[in-house]
Amino acid sequence: MLGLGIIGWIIIGGLAGWIGSKVMGTDEQQGILLNVVVGVIGGLIGGFLLGLIGVDVEGAGLIFSFLTCLLGAVILLWLVKLVRR
Prior knowledge:
Number of domains: 1
Family: Belongs to the UPF0410 family.
Helix content: over 70%
Pfam families: Transgly_assoc
Protein name: GlsB/YeaQ/YmgE family stress response membrane protein
Strand content: under 5%
Largest sheet: none
Shape: globular
Organism: Rhodococcus rhodnii LMG 5362
Number of helices: 3
Order of helices and strands: HHH
Structural class: mainly alpha
Subcellular location: Cell membrane
C-alpha cells in the first residue's frame, strides 16, 4: 500500500472498514469516517499479525492489501465488541 499514498489508504481502509463492519454487525453504529479509521487501523493490525507469522505484506498488491485491512478490521471490531460487553 506504500505506493498508493494517503488517498489509497483512505479508499482501501474505508472499503475494508465498511465490509468489516457488515461482517461484524456494527454497520448501523458507524459512519463513513469511523469505517475509514477502522480500516486503516485494521490494515496496521493485519500487517503486523501477518508479519509475525512470516507473511511478506509489503508489495503484495492491491487485493492482498485490501484483504489484510479487512482481516485487521474484523479483528479490531471483534476486540471492541469484547471490551464493550
